[in-house]
Design goal:
- The protein is α+β, with helices and mostly antiparallel strands.
- The protein is 35% helix and 23% strand.
- It has one domain.
- Strands 1-2-3-4 form a 4-stranded antiparallel sheet, with helices on one face.
- The longest helix has 50 residues.
């Protein structure tokens, strides 16, 4: 005998199980993307740190030269060692180039020295540092 057409509800229906499985799948998929993004960002941060160090090293070297040095003549020069490794030795993936502005750029008595480091991992990257070198006379001679 059936009493009033109501069933007793004990347990989960098939629809409840499918919905819960789908929700769990979406949650796991969202969580699995996090470590991949973190790893990619960490690798890019390592590249930026190396490129910044290579650019800073070259910028300091150029700024320490006497003003008449050939390396401080206007123009752009690629690093003669070619692509560099993280420690600055030849044979890596970091390309370094330096450029020196014409005298009195951006202001009288200054020369702008710029060093750019480029590299490619999953996409191309570029770090660029610039500094001024003060001429002994205004305008630069």
């Amino acid at each position: 005998m059936c009493s009033g057409g109501r069933r007793s509800s004990s347990g989960f229906s098939l629809l409840d199980a499918v919905a819960a499985t789908g929700l769990l799948g979406v949650a796991v998929l969202g969580l699995s993307a996090g470590p991949l993004t973190l790893a990619r960002n960490a690798k890019m941060a390592d590249g930026v740190a190396v490129a910044t160090a290579l650019a800073q090293e070259e910028l300091e070297r150029l700024r320490s030269l006497p003003l008449g040095a050939a390396e401080l003549s206007p123009g752009t020069v690629d690093d003669p060692d070619g692509p560099l490794t993280a420690d600055g030795s030849p044979g890596g993936r970091f390309h370094r180039a330096s450029s020196v502005s014409k005298p009195d750029v951006p202001h009288p008595g200054l020369i702008t020295v710029t060093v750019a480091v480029t590299w490619t991992d999953t996409r191309p990257h570029r770090v660029e540092l610039a500094a001024y070198v003060r001429c002994p006379a205004i305008p630069c001679e």
